[in-house]
Amino acid sequence: MTNLSPLTEVAPEAPRSRNRWRGLLPRWSPKLAVGLGLAGAIVLFGLIGPLVTGDPATIRDFGLTPPGGEHLLGTTVTGQDILAQLAHATRGSLQIGLLVGIMATVLSGVFGVVGAYAGGVVDEIFSLFSNVMLVIPGLPLVIVIAGFVPPDQRGTGTISLVLAITGWAAAARVLRAQTLSLRNRDYVAAARVSGEKTWRVICVEILPNLLPILASQFVFAVVLAILSEAGLSFLGLGAANSSTLGTMLYYAQNGFALQRDAWWWFVPPGLIIALFGGALALINFSIDEIINPDLRDRARRERDVVAVETDTAPGEQDAVLTVKNLNVVYQSDTPVHAVKDVSLTLRRGEILGLAGESGCGKTTLAYAINRLHRPPAEVTSGSVTFHDRDGEDVDVLALAPEELRAFRWVKLSMVFQGAMNALNPVTPIRAQLQDVLRTHRPGMPASDREKRCAEVLRLVGVDPARLGSFPHELSGGMRQRVMIAMALLLDPQVMIMDEPTTALDVLVQREILNEIRRLRDELSFAVVFITHDLPLLLELSDRIAVMRDGEVVEYADAEEMYLRPRHPYTRELLASFPGLNDDRGALIR
Ligand SMILES: Nc1ncnc2c1ncn2[C@@H]1O[C@H](COP(=O)(O)OP(=O)(O)OP(=O)(O)O)[C@@H](O)[C@H]1O
């Protein structure tokens, strides 16, 4: 099958290149539109309402008037206009929400980000303090603190402070974890080494990466503050001399609004709290999609799965893996469409070679097949189906996280590019191999684990006596064999090998390739073998797919490709290896 489909446009991404901050903004979606619309309307009401609705405290001599006429939302028992009260109360609640949001975000930033960046004793003290604050139950503490503050000092500022003090710790934990990961990134290390000041490294290198998390936490803190303040006011512990939605509910309860069927007194403030909470939750969900692009992938994948199910073109008879119209895009400032509409079928026991120059998308394709791709990489469409030995078809892109964990390495394993450096230098080989078995076969007795580890080492031609060795005591070739042994441990049906021999000298490379072919014959797993070295693939593979610029431009039997390359790019690739141009006649295998 030759796949020469035209480049799929990624139209909505175009503006990203113009504005690097665009990537940090939520994508426009119905959820976001509804959330922003509702929240915006409520904020406008809180801002403009008090200016046009008049004094909410004016007492009139006609109490509990139902909505209509002069008083659109009716009056309280003392004849105060509910609409005017609602406008002022909305403003009061928004003020508290905003104040608490800012204070809680600053506190979590200081204790989470600064602590984690400073490290050492500072981090330990900050982290201990955050943990203590986290385990103290929030609402009871708020009630106790608010209860101890005399009513005349219990203004909006005091209540906001109390709510912020009790509401920052969980966010600080998340920020700390994220900062610990960011501070070890190369660009942060480079900034430090180049002598940038600490505040600058935090503000310029770290904080921009935390913006979506901070925004999400801010929104959450605002919702929580409005709800908590309403709860406190309802208990009579809210801000004194101020009007909030909670105090409105408190007075409605004291005025027996429910018993008097005066629904217009308590329903509007309750409704505004519920709508504002719902609106911010919708906004927060859209921000979550920036932090975790997997969320937006999921919806799209579910759509794609339906499309694939209705399009059940007959696959190849003995297929173990079918990739259909797979598209992967790196959603970076300038989106890179790294895999374009790729369709491949891997037969049971087959070695499928994936060739192409550096940057053509081989690794991206391998990672996407395995669901190992990480943001900004995103599978925008297509399907990956694994056809299990027992006849079941597994839709790999739709697997839930737990199912994926059970699938990977058991059914489909991977030997990574530069894999020989992937071994942990301070742990003996035995422990590293046994870890895989402990994770995937928790019930396996220790003696069987030991036996299996020795067995796979033997399979790849490494003396089992080496089980106790540390990686640095092994040669590069041996380490590579250990990595292949690790991929074999659970007897997978498919093994993806991404340039597994690139760093090795030609002789060791040849030995390992022979080993792979022998193992495939013995254990009959299928292999996707990735390399830019087309001659090597011609020797090793049954079929070869040639990739260029993210597309599979030719897909054919190895011998056929060698003798009759059809695509000009394949011919160009073959011509670039001098040994293949001579008169050898047939492919040497
Ligand atoms: N994190 C990323 N963000 C944006 N673009 C990326 C990212 N990673 C890879 N790319 C781009 O995706 C394309 C495919 O990269 P990929 O690593 O899959 O190529 P490859 O064929 O495996 O190359 P190599 O043989 O050198 O490993 C390249 O154009 C690359 O620049």
Description:
Residues 94-284 form the ABC transmembrane type-1 domain. This is Dipeptide/oligopeptide/nickel ABC transporter permease/ATP-binding protein. The chain has 589 residues and is an alpha/beta fold. It has 2 domains: 32-56 and 71-291, MetI-like fold (Orthogonal Bundle); 292-405 and 527-589, Rossmann fold. The chain has 20 helices and 10 strands. It has a 6-stranded mixed beta sheet with strand order 6-7-8-3-9-10, sandwiched between helices. The two termini are 24 Å apart. Adenosine-5'-triphosphate (ATP) binds at residues 330, 332, 336, 338, 356, 358-364, 376, 532.
Keywords:
589 residues, four-stranded antiparallel β-sheet, Rossmann fold, MetI-like fold, Oligopep_ABC_C, 10 strands, 2 domains, single chain, binds adenosine-5'-triphosphate, ATP-binding, disordered N terminus
Topology overview:
Blueprint: H1 30-53, H2 82-118, H3 120-135, H4 138-148, H5 156-165, H6 169-183, H7 186-193, H8 198-234, H9 245-254, H10 263-291, H11 294-310, E1 319-330, E2 336-347, E3 351-355, H12 362-369, E4 377-387, E5 393-395, H13 401-407, E6 412-415, H14 429-440, H15 446-459, H16 476-488, E7 494-498, H17 506-523, E8 526-530, H18 534-540, E9 543-548, E10 551-557, H19 558-563, H20 568-575
Parallel strand pairs: 3-8, 3-9, 6-7, 7-8
Antiparallel strand pairs: 1-2, 1-4, 4-5, 9-10
The chain binds adenosine-5'-triphosphate.
Membrane topology: Multi-pass membrane protein; Peripheral membrane protein
Subcellular location: Cell membrane; Membrane
Protein name: Dipeptide/oligopeptide/nickel ABC transporter permease/ATP-binding protein
